[in-house]
Input
Amino acid sequence: MLLRIHQVLTTDELAQVRELVLGADWADGRLTAGSQSGAVKNNQQVPEDLPAAQQARHLVSVALARHPMFVTGALPRSVYPPLFNRYSGAANHFGDHIDNAVRTHAATARHVRTDISCTLFLSDPASYDGGELVVQDTYGEQRIKFDAGDLVMYPGTSVHRVEPVTRGERLACFFWVESMVRHDAQRRLLYDMDMAITALRRKELQTAAADTASGPGESPEVVRLTGCYHNLLRMWATV
Ligand code: NI
Output
């Protein structure tokens, strides 16, 4: 499932994160690559132990935790601390690769299985040319270039690349999620069900406002469907 999450960062947070990251000392992006991806990776990253990276990471982590769509779509069990990259000038692309299956956070020695890959866009798409994230999924290639502050999540199993940036610079935050629900197909079912139940409940609440004899949006059907959601989650979740 490829999912767009709008406005993960507010305008203020986006400005703060950009300022922190732009003022940092950048390093070669190959630092965190595996051997196959290192051969096709040509970008820059902020070393994760820098204070600016820590502050920016904190801002993003707080924003993610409060965003209901992120929680609904990812069902996060563990989030790899967000990293920051830049594509510009000669260091401007990242060829086809699949992300490493397990990332080990150096500072904590914590392992995160990369069920979901995430990119949070930090540059106005009009400010650079190229730089599309191209993800190969079941329905073919998806070319992704979202507004600054928006996030895309896609299965960690996907082959993907970042096209060369030919003008300006593309700043982004990227990280991985180990989900409580390991398999993409199961997460997708839960997500669709959650969205449908939410819409149904909203519809019932509107009807209830017009007809005071009705219940407050908690019809027996909504209760049963909500129960089905939780029972599927209980069957599939690892916590
Ligand atoms: Ni990647």
Summary: The first strand starts at residue 3 and ends at 5. The chain has a mean pLDDT of 93.
